[in-house]
Each structure stands twice: as C-alpha cells, then as structure tokens.
Amino acid sequence: MSILENWEQWKNFLGDRLDQAQLQGMSQEVIGQMAHQVGDYLSKQVDPKNEQERVLSDLWSVASEEEQQAIASVMVKLVENNSTH
C-alpha cells in the first residue's frame, strides 16, 4: 500500500520530511517553495488516492499561483501541528 492511500500516513510522511528539512536548516520560505513544487507535481502526475487528496487536487486545479502558495503553506502548517515528533 502506498503512503498516498492513507491520509494519516501521508501527513506523517510529510511531517517527517518537514522535520528533516528544518533540522538541516532550511528556511520557512524554502520549505514553502518546496511544498508548492510537490503540490504542483502531485496535481499533474498523481491520481488522488483518497477523499482528502481529491479535495486538495480539485482546489489546486482552480487556484491561482498565489492561492496555490497559500494551499502549500497551509499544508506545511497542518503537518507541523500534527507532527508525531
């Protein structure tokens, strides 16, 4: 089973990557840019595997560049606040 198939596993995976990025000294700006790149890649290359991902994909597809940045930023905050570490 792919981590993309389970929303909680996906958030935990993102949280772990965020923890690693912060430990390596990446700034919030760089993390936000990377989150946007990941969101853009996922929206173009990966079929959503659950309801939450479908909502994010649908929102991303109609959002402007600025709104996509906001979505990416909110996802970073979500995994920060739900971090298992």
Automatic annotation (TrEMBL):
Q: Which Gene3D superfamilies match?
A: Protein of unknown function DUF3243 (1.10.760.20)
Official protein name in the record = DUF3243 domain-containing protein
Its ancestry begins with:
Bacteria, Bacillati, Bacillota, Bacilli, Bacillales
Question: What InterPro entries does the record point to?
Answer: DUF3243, Uncharacterised_YmfJ, YmfJ/YflH_sf
Q: Which organism is it from?
A: Siminovitchia terrae
